[in-house]
Amino acid sequence: MSGAGKKVADVAFKASRTIDWEGMAKVLVTDEARREFCNLRRAFDEVNTQLQTKFSQEPEPIDWDFYRKGIGSGIVDMYKEAYDSVEIPKYVDTVTPEYKPKFDALLVELKEAEQKSLKESERLEKEIVDVQEISKKLSTMTADEYFEKHPELKKKFDDEIRNDYWGY
Contact at 8 Å (CB) between 28 and 34? Predict the structure, then answer.
């Protein structure tokens, strides 16, 4: 196996072990997101399988003696010499250095968005608890009790009454 091919196959194998597919699947809400996620996982598995099979196998050595018996040594020796003279260039990665800073910047942006999302989720959860609490008490709650929880509304209504603005 070539060095670059083995490296790609090893990285793909390690990536497949470290991805928490079940954890990510639990976060998905819509059916469309679940379908897209399944498609992503299937594509990832196909590529990973291909990388494992293509890059993990050494090519079978050529049995030059077998061909010498059937064809003749002159032509076979010529092909063997040409085959041995073929040099496969080593892969030089020019793409990763170009995109690594962009990827790192996106990761930072992703972390910031994640933090913002978590804070917003926390705020919304608190708001949901408040709304559920109010909906339970709504039938027996007085205006004073409501304004106690929402003093900004009391101030707004008091200002409207004081300024003779009755909503018309």
Answer: yes
**For 114-157, how does the pLDDT look when each residue is reduced to its tens digit (9 = 90+)?**
999 999 999 999 999 988 888 887 778 888 888 888 899 889 88
| Phi, psi values for residue 166, rounded to 5° | -110, 25
pTM for the model: 0.37
CA atoms within 13 A on the CB side of 83: 10
What is 23-81 written as a DSSP string?
HHHHH--SHHHHHHHHHHHHHHHHHHHHHHHHHS-PPPPP-HHHHHHHT-HHHHHHHHH
Q: Residue 90 has what DSSP assignment?
A: P
Question: Buried b vs exposed e over 97-126: b needs ≥16 C-beta within 10 Å?
Answer: eeeeeeeeeeeeeeeeeeeeeeeeeeeeee
Of 43, 40, 44, 82, the closest CA to residue 62 belongs to 82
Cα–Cα dist 114/117, whole Å: 5
